[in-house]
User: Fold this.
Amino acid sequence: MALGTSSKRYAKALVSHSIDEGNLDVMFDEINSLITILEESDDLKEFISNPTISRENKTKFLNELTVQSLPNVSKLLNLLSLNNRVDMLLDVCKVFVQQYNTYNDIVDVTVTTPVQISENLEKTIELYLSSIKAGKIKLTKKKDKDLIAGFTLDFDNTRLDASVKKRLEKMKKQLKTTN
Assistant:
């Protein structure tokens, strides 16, 4: 069974359980906090993925880390530990966020630009996306100076690339093929 499939199953079960318990939004907030913690700490990610550390030690440490600030996450940690899948924690959390967004009809969009975008441009992007996608648009802004100018939009496994970098790469490829 592929890691992605397992992550989806755990996340789906967690969404279903959270809906039944009536704490889906609370779980979403806690999962996002946990994602932030995991992504900001390379040491923690290495600890979780280290096969020489017992699952009991991993679970004990993670429970101590989360029991006060993220009490609902401990259910997920205990389930993953019971099945010896603690190493999947970050993947399960990310899939949970995707499934939460799907359940709540939220379209998660990332706009990447070389400079900070204005509120006016942000509203224009949201209006455009609303015209092609049903649901509430959740816009995340990123900066990437390598784009030179223009932007990229990423949503639903789709990328709209209107960057100068992309155009220059395309021109370079065309020049190589004509020579």
Observations:
- The chain has a mean pLDDT of 89.
